[in-house]
What does this fold into?
Amino acid sequence: MLDYKFIKENLAAVKENIKNRNMTADADIVVELYDKRTALVTKRQDLQQQRNQNAASMKGKMEADQRAKLVEEGKRIKEEIAAVEKELEAVEPELEEAARKIPNMCNPAVPIGKLDTENLEVKKVGTPRKFDFEPRDHVQLMEELDLIDFERGTKVSGQKFYYLKNEAVFLEQALIMYTLNVLRKHGFTPFITPDVAKQEILKGIGFNPRGNESNVYCIEEEGTCLVATAEITLGGYHSEEILDKSKLPLMYCGLSHCFRREAGAAGQFSKGLYRVHQFDKVEMFVYCTPEQSDELHEKLRLIEEEIFTGLGLPFHVVDTCTGDLGAPAYRKWDLEAWMPGRNGGEYGEVTSTSNCTDYQSRRLNVRYKDDDGKNKYVHMLNGTAVAVGRAMLAIVENYQNEDGSITIPEALVPFCGFDKIGPKKQ
It folds into this structure.
């Protein structure tokens, strides 16, 4: 979340940022509650000082009636402190709840817009393939090759679940191993993270565990949720810790299952593997100083580009507009791969990378001791190295052949053990 004092001192800019992000939040109530809390804290401190003075006065010799007056005064002060603390207990959660709705400030370079159609293309890599036959979408291709079963996934688990089968199993594992090896080369520490996290960790990262718009599955009566991304578990890894500045940046990558309700998501662009309730993903996560974060954000994007260039997939990079940014992001880039089966051929998001500055670390209380001896909040960044389902979708559609077979990208062949997926022999 944003610093309360920052919101108060930059109220007009904060309100303009909320407007540009097309979000609903009340910065005025945050300032009002912050001022109320400040006044109550000051009043409590004054009363505590009076209490200490009263206690000191009672140490000397005095008349009985004078001591009685001091005792009575001590009781009055104690009652006032209790009343003030009761007010503070009520104000604190109100202030925090209101402040959590305020989004992070945006990088001044972020394009202003409401919809993803207003994202700004900043780079294009590769040329979409021109087919000399009518290309099929990944669902048709994979079902004909007996690589996926949506029907039985729905029967067993519900809509938007599926079974991967045969060579697709090896292709998924190949994508994971290929990606982990790229990240190892760049110095990332690999993790396999838990699939469950406490609700307070999700809130700290910026996910809403409750409500109709929540995108996560809560585990009833446990106070925990299934994770929607390893960003949650990697971001919570150092919660309530003070990190050694000399060891920053910390560059982690996490493999996890991801579970998403995808509330409200429907339509042609949600077809097949593009939007499902469960998938595997390798996530990058960085803890760093404020001075390092812009450069590291660029590094994460370049790594994503390296991964998809290595797969031979055409893609472009977009600078995400204000209205399409998640609340924690200061700036976000998306990589969108060319998908021949998407509405006759379109780009679709496959990865993103966000610089969240200190927005998440304030919630999770992750700090480092600076050279001046003061504890300061780290900056946190995240980036999708590979969301396996969407990467597989792009590979299947771009590498399809006229006979319905699929050629495996050269970079994945050593991990797959085969270079083509063809029809099964009858």
User: Anything to note?
Assistant: The two ends are 59 Å apart (CA to CA). The chain has a mean pLDDT of 94. Residues 64-100 form the longest helix (37 residues).
